[in-house]
Amino acid sequence: MPAVTTTTAPRTDAATATDGEESALAPELLVRLYDRMLLARCLEERLIRMNKQGDGFFWVGGPGEEALNASLGLLVHKGQGPEFDYLHLHYRSTATLIAMGADPTDTLRQMKNTATDPYSGGRNFCNHYSVRRWNVAPVSSPIEVQFSMAPGTALANKRAGGRGITIVQGGDAGTAEGDFSTCLIWCSLPRRELPCLMIVANNHWGISTPAGDTHAEKHIADRGAVFGIKSAVVDGNDAETCYRELKKAMEYVRAERRPFLLEVMVSRLYGHTSASGANFVPEELDCFVPFEKKLEERRIMTRDEMDELRARYTQQLLDASKKVREEPQPKGEDIHRHVFAERDAVREPPRPAASAPAPPSVASKVSKNGVH
Ligand SMILES: Cc1ncc(C[n+]2csc(CCOP(=O)(O)OP(=O)(O)O)c2C)c(N)n1
Ligand SMILES: [Mg+2]
Description:
The structure is a single chain. Residues 6-22 and 358-372 have low confidence and may be disordered. Helix content is 37%, strand content 10%. The two termini are 41 Å apart. It has one domain (25-328): Thiamin diphosphate (ThDP)-binding fold, Pyr/PP domains (Rossmann fold). It is globular and about 60 Å long. By secondary structure, it is an alpha/beta fold. It is built from ten helices and eight strands. Magnesium ion is lined by residues 171-173, 203, 205-206.
């Protein structure tokens, strides 16, 4: 497969950008990208071990998607409100959050379901992020629903008039859901196009169903053509290509205020979830292998430096996981917190304008409780 193919609508496989030295990224940027990818990988490995040791009920994550996801995390315009980028991610987006600056210990907390987990107060599976101050919408276990929400925040981005965009990401099998079509349709309405980058991380599997059994078109990206949506297919195992093509696609959406569909071919290195064993799959290409080779060949990092960094992150995360084990679990009496709305905004009588101070909203209560 070529490293990347980019098209206007319709997409053609002829337009191929090669990963030549002339378009090499700066060494400092490659080191930064490698560093974030590696921290995310070590974190996933720790999460899998925690699960196998009984420190967490379930593991799902993104080992194999780091080249794509860490690139995204470094490129996002991070902040709160429609001037900034909105992120509707999936349960394999670990490296995106890590590259954005999330504390990996918080991911361990969610794995251990401690009360200190800032994403769900100990209530959700690991890697189900939710960060209001960074416009990261809650990750959903029901797949693909994020694609029907994304046009809403993309519309908010558009109305705000700045350069903020919406980024929505999911897997390949999920594109069979109506939500994916909803996103294609609502983002491409004539004269009302929305600044939305749709990313499909194609690992060729939907749990245990091979992609070849579930859709007839060659590339999911080809579906963009009939909606007039520009698209590209990118090799997700080439970190440099991922960063460069993601940057290009994001810049297009930012500047043109139109949608873009990016299909990224990735590996699924530890199977679907802990439900399928979470064991390493040696047949899949690991995006670290070509990246480390490149860093060595260009004399940007040595093998020893990479090994030392890996050992350091592995140790730090082991230490952090031991501390997290001692942190409190949510209290039994809190079981209904964050489950039901604390006021009925639909049925309650309209509030008098600018009279008594409004009762605290659900949102402010939630953030006061430490859940973003
Ligand atoms: C709405 C919905 N239907 C079915 C499921 C069960 N399910 C969980 S993951 C998955 C496959 C997802 O495959 P894909 O979209 O390719 O993402 P991947 O897990 O491969 O990254 C399914 C069917 C679900 N979680 N939500
Ligand atoms: Mg898949």
